[in-house]
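ok trying this again, last paste got cut off
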Amino acid sequence: MWDAQEGLFLREVCARDEQLLGVCMAPNGLRVAIACDDGVLRAYDIDRTDAVITQRHSFSPFRAVVYAPDGESIATGSDDGTIKVWDAAGGDMKAHLHAHIRQADAQRGLPKKPFPVTGLCYDATSTKLVSCSADGTIKYWLRLRGQEGGLMALVAGVEEQEEADALEKREIKRKRLTAQLSAPRPVAPPGTLAPCVRGC
């Protein structure tokens, strides 16, 4: 932890063997939440060395973590495309969103695919959450108090997602064509004419 005005080192909050990929301080300045490559959310009081919250987000690394400005929630975003919202006091999960997971589309030749959540940000009222992802989209979520799930998607980067899907579809076609062209062709026995492949 550092003094923001003087730039002086104050204290080490924690030291772990895992890679620490993200960190956020609670609005009251008394607790920090960290994102780890083992997929576990950990929160520490700044004057203690033991984690006061330990909750597994997923078995994939996650790098996005943010406290809500009201201090009541922590949001985390994982490489598996999900967002989870946790109670900042006790660590209970409040919401689980399949936020950046493209569903399979057989008609368009696209498989189901998760995209890493790379950033999260709350608004000042703690009722709106914005997420961004490696899928090229920014999504806007609204907290619905008293509603199951806790959050609802309002706006998504539809154009960016469609462009990403189109690029991937073209890449799949390119790989298939490359595989077809590189496949061995039948060889005619000696003394016979090779079959006419194109108009003779």
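PB: full thing came through this time. The longest helix spans residues 158-182.
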